[in-house]
Amino acid sequence: MRTGSLTIAAAAALVVAAGVVPARAQAAAGCRVTYEVTSQWQGGFGATADVTNLGDALTGWQLTWSFPAGQTVTQLWNGTVAQSGPRVTVTNAGWNGNLGAGGTVSVGFNGSWSGGNPAPTDFALNGVPCNGGGTTPTTPPATDVLGQVSTVSRVRAADAAVQYTWPGTYFEGRFRGTSVGLILNDATNDYTVQVDGATVATIVTPGRTTYWIRNLADGDHTVRLAKRTEGQWAAGEFGGLVGTVLGKPALRSRQIEFIGDSWTAGYGNMSTSRDCTSTGGLTRNSNADVSFGALTARGLNADYQINAWSGLGMVRNYNGQGTDNFRTYYETDLQAVFNSQVWPVPSSWRPQVVVVGLGINDFSTALNAGEKWASVDQLAADYRAAYGAFLDKLRARYGANTFLVLTYPDLSYQTTALADAIRTIVQGRNDAGDARVSALFYDNTALGLDLLGCDWHPSQRDHRILADAVTRHLAGLPLGW
Hints:
The protein is α+β, with helices and mostly antiparallel strands. It has helices spanning 145-148, 262-265, 281-284, 292-299, 326-329, 360-363, 376-398, 417-431, 444-447, 460-475, and strands spanning 6-10, 31-41, 44-53, 62-66, 72-77, 79-84, 87-92, 104-112, 124-125, 128-129, 132-135, 156-158, 161-164, 170-186, 190-195, 198-204, 207-213, 220-227, 236-246, 254-260, 302-308, 353-357, 403-409, 437-442.
């Protein structure tokens, strides 16, 4: 269990039993303690206790509390610590024993926990309880991250967190107050944090931490954490929110799934030059949260998934690399992580639209010697067959009512095989009675794409143009939205 800030105050003087208060210290007339878990990981945590003296000046102090779930202090600074069972006693250091009226001293420590980490509620300063008028922000148990936040992304429960790999994974929650903490464990990916719809932070490979958003206006807020980058080989972990967590937002009734490659993943879309090596490289310049899929969905107030993998194709990867194609990983929860499994599609995920963009990597480079296809015609035949089977899988997965939109850009500089294949696939499905399959051609020239992202990929401007194109196409479908 995670806990946020805990504020406890008392104003009345109480009689202190003999032997409880150090001989050199006076009794406090009242006190306030703000207790905050600043970071948490499996079996351990860091915390601070800010103690405000509401009585007369003190020349020595002791702060006591009891841990309610068997936690143990392992290291403490700004004082000395003794612990007997759940009872913790912190005595001032030699240099901070004077605590004036209204003065505050801060104690920090690391601790261990097992099974739960609820906040103490019985703080006392020199034997006087700090127990008046406070409120106790609460959070759901650490194992119930999805009880705090809403998501339709592919995630897997793992101890006190959820794991994920697919780009654009996002979580939405609600909280009350001026701050909120986000518990993360991810040394690979970057994130965007939004509060009330405004971006307030970009988190770069956070590692194991509780990332705090502070100094907000006091009140009720929404918070959104979105994974910007790809990371197919290492799962990120989100351990939930810390603070006064409110009921999570309801899922939206509209749902869209985006399937594809680097265009769909937002590869290098934040760059303003095709060579982005001098501006932070590919990872720093990629942001799935402003890819055309994310922009389209948010513009339509829809929840969405971005299931994309740069460099992979339907049957052939970029420049003929590797043997695993996109279809190898499409159904997995954690992509190429060693323990990845088939993602159990929940009843809450039933997209009305699936937008598929696979084929650039199949056809954008010439066939190499040693590849399994002797000609582009052979490649196109395999592509059409695999695409048909993939659409059958989507139909079995989501039903006959889901609209399937097959997108493709202009590759005429290399071949027309992709465009010809898509048109043939769509016509065949329509002729067979499946009218809910359509094609969307991204005419690079007509749309005015500049392809100024890393390595000739769509730029942020291009993604807005592509989002408009997808939105217009969806507006022409009988979705009933």
